[in-house]
């Protein structure tokens, strides 16, 4: 019986250490290298004047045409990312039917004579890349168990804690 | 639970037929959490509902015999340990990159994506075990508390009657002293 108690104590300390590690390991809110904030590559556009047009804050026509052809809303405004050469942010205006406020939407990067267009949103990564990245067709499950695995670990431990507290309250061997 | 209540043949027969299918459906829901609607939480609750149906249709003591308290307690923490252990395996196999809960590094198969899918399945099984055991544990505890209180009430009334009868032992003591 004493040995069983010692094993239980060791297991509890192990789990506690693991949970402290988890709390330390969760990505910081707004961390630019966190997986949800990484962008999804959409397409590459070729053209000579694109870079000069982008530098003049004008959206090139062939770029917005290529985006519309693939079913994405065309950007209304382009701004250079401060401090980085050859990278731009493309914004979507309020007037677009599904975007109530202006938001940063595309990330454009110069690569040689081409221009790579990527998309910022986490939702798009979730929907479009999930099957490719996890080989699971159910969007809810890979969200719950993989991308938000820490959250689900916490939920399971909450349920476990609820059960343990019910046991402590109701299962009293010796009467007071 | 049903002390002295008459047995209902219909309820007992229907639950005897249904319980295996409910448990099978619960396992189906847990295993198919990756491919269809379902998952650990739902499957665990469905599995626990089979025990609850058994207790309602038959009796509490029989339910506890089928699912003993020690097994229940061990299972309730085992699921959580499976989940955390899969995360620990991911740390070990990622070889210094410390990718907690990134199932892709655990070498179940040769492909990274397949590993993630399989790791998700194991995690779902862990969640299912914990939820099943905890739901059953809470139900059994509440039912036992209720049964004990009823018993206590019965004993109390009996003991009260006994004390009213015990008012007579004075005469027995008196008789013993007299003898």
Give an account of the 3D structure.
With 176 residues, chain A is an alpha+beta fold. Chain A has 2 domains: 2-30 and 136-170, no CATH class; 37-121, no CATH class. Helices cover 47% and strands 18% of the residues of chain A. Chain A is built from 6 helices and 5 strands; from the N terminus they run αβααββββααα. Chain A has helices at 2-25, 50-55, 61-69, 122-134, 139-147, 149-170; strands at 40-46, 77-80, 87-92, 103-111, 114-119. Chain A has a 5-stranded antiparallel beta sheet. In chain A, strand 2 (77-80) and strand 3 form a beta hairpin. In chain A, helix 5 crosses helix 6 (149-170). The longest helix of chain A has 24 residues, at 2-25. The model of chain A has no long low-confidence stretch (mean pLDDT 80). Chain B has 179 residues and is mainly alpha-helical. Chain B has one domain. Helix content of chain B is 77%, strand content 0%. Chain B contains 6 helices and no strands. Chain B has helices spanning 9-31, 40-57, 60-66, 69-93, 112-166, 169-178. In chain B, helix 4 runs antiparallel to helix 5 (112-166). The longest helix of chain B has 55 residues, at 112-166. The two termini of chain B are 48 Å apart. Chain A binds chain B through residues 11, 15, 18-19, 21-22, 25, 132-138, 140-142, 144-146, 149-150, 152-153, 155-157, 159-160, 162-164, 166-167, 170-171, and chain B through 33-37, 39, 41, 73, 76-77, 79-81, 83-84, 87-88, 98, 100-101, 103, 111, 113-114, 116-117, 119-120, 123-124, 126-127, 130-131, 133-134, 137-138, 141-142, 144-145.
